[in-house]
Write a structure and sequence with these properties.
This protein is mainly α. Among the domains are: about 30 residues; about 40 residues. About 35% of the residues lie in helices and about 0% in strands. The chain has 2 helices and no strands.
Length: about 120
């Protein structure tokens, strides 16, 4: 059997990014701005396409100009507002589950999970 290097070192011209860094191409501000602009142009073209393609809805309100755009926006706004109200209504106080200064992992030994505290001694 030959002694091969299974994990060869990277070439010097290949940029390496540290794990956890925010240098992904989708997190760059220029890319985000470009994506928003492209999205805006596509949505604008879809609204303007209503001049070329006749829309026949089931109800008279559906025949208004850009019905899908403004109805979708208002529906999204209503969902966000409903979620905020629901979050406010279901909110629990900080002390709901007990004292705020008690550590979550505090067991019978005060958080020590060693064998002398009755915890699991497996490695």
């Amino acid at each position: 059997m030959t002694d091969r290097n299974i994990h060869p070192t990277p070439k010097p011209d290949v940029p390496r990014v540290a794990p956890g860094s925010d240098d992904h191409w989708l997190s760059r501000p220029a890319t985000v701005r470009a994506a928003w602009r492209v999205l805006g142009v596509v949505l604008g073209l879809l609204v303007l396409a209503q001049f070329l393609v006749p829309v026949k809805g089931h109800f008279p309100l559906e025949n208004t100009f850009a019905f899908g755009a403004w109805f979708g926006f208002l529906a999204c706004l209503a969902m966000v507002l409903a979620a905020r109200v629901l979050g406010w209504w279901l909110k629990k106080p900080e002390s709901y589950y007990g004292e705020a200064d008690t550590p979550i992992d505090a067991g019978p030994g005060g958080g020590d999970a060693g064998p002398e505290a009755g915890g699991d001694d497996r490695a």
